Amino acid sequence: MSEPVDGFEDGEVRRLFAEEARAERPDLAVLCLLIGAEADPGLGPAGLDAAQAELDRLAGEMPYRPGGPHAWAVALRDLLGGRYGFGGAPADYQRLDSSLLHRVLVRRRGLPILLSVVWVEVARRAGAPVYGVALPGHFVVGLGPADGQVLVDPFDGGRVLGEGEAGALVAGATGAVLEPSMLEPAEPLEVVIRILNNIRSWAAARPERSDVALWAVELSLLIPHHPARLRHEKGQLLVRRGDFVAGAAELDEYADLVEVVDEPTAERVRNEARAARAMLN
Predict the structure, then answer these.
(1) Using one digit for the tens of pLDDT, what is the confidence trace for 17-26?
(2) Each residue of 102-149: pLDDT tens digit?
(3) Helix 210-220 crosses helix 12-21 at what angle (to 10 degrees)?
(4) Phi/psi at 159 (nearest 5 deg)?
(5) Element (H, E) at 152
(6) pLDDT digits (tens, 9 = 90+) for 138-189
(7) Torsion angle of the four alpha carbons 6, 7, 9, 13, in this order, in degrees rounded to the nearest 10
(8) Between the CA of residue 135 and those of 75, 128, 242, what are the distances in Å?
(9) Which residues pair with 159 in a beta bridge?
């Protein structure tokens, strides 16, 4: 893949992201690449096209209709994990690149959820019955119907999970017990929200990267039915970054939203807004 040279116009990434998030059938790859364009101003339309072309190229190397879900799983493992070396390691959790699809396609390293996006998008283009599975603490990929589901772990190079291994992953990551509902296909917006949550968590551990936390929150606010608490988080980030007027306004708006159901919280947030405005004096 060649590196992009021209970025988007101001505000265009947000506009495109909002439109795609509200589409009848949101495109997972497009949304993930627009997250990358928000993180990397140099990633313009040509860069998005190059990433889509790479997914198409990889799909073109898949065998034609290899068989049932298990055969698809093996073919994906051999191609993506074997021939091209896609996978992950603990160190990948420390890199923002690991949450950006265009960088994962170049580095062939990433978080479980981004590697799963690669698996899903390549397999979908090749005609496989594929979908993401949002296990607590560890995202994987599913193939086939519920009564014949095959799970693979792209973070481990596409390893096909044996009986009980999905439960072990959940227990190891969260201590929870695997429930059948955890194995249902994840909708594209669910995946995108989880990716943005990961980016916010990455930035929260790095106070000097409040810029990343802010754009991740702002993109999250463009997704329909987002949690109202994100307005509070955005207001706090703006205040932390020295934008006291905008931060106070955001905090007041959040207070107005929650006042009907939680007056004490609303008053506490209004006090935060007053304190932010006082910093202007």
Answers:
(1) 999 999 999 9
(2) 999 999 999 999 999 999 999 999 999 999 999 998 999 999 998 999
(3) 40
(4) -55, 130
(5) strand 150-153
(6) 999 999 998 999 999 999 999 999 888 988 888 888 888 888 899 999 999 9
(7) 150
(8) 23, 21, 38
(9) 153
Written as six digits, the tokens of 122 are: 């390549």
Which pair of structure tokens corresponds to residue 171? 């227990």
Is the pTM for the entire model greater than 0.90? yes
CA-wise closest residue to 10 among 37, 29, 33? 37
Report how many helices (DSSP H) and strands (DSSP E) the chain contains, helices first: 12, 4
Structure tokens at 215: 């754009």
Q: Take residue 151 and report the two structure tokens written for it.
A: 């799970």
Q: Is 252 helix (H, G, I), strand (E, B) or coil?
A: helix
Bridge partner list, 142: 131, 151
d(CA 94, CA 153): 20
Q: Of 49, 117, 48, give the one whose Cα is nearest residue 80.
A: 117
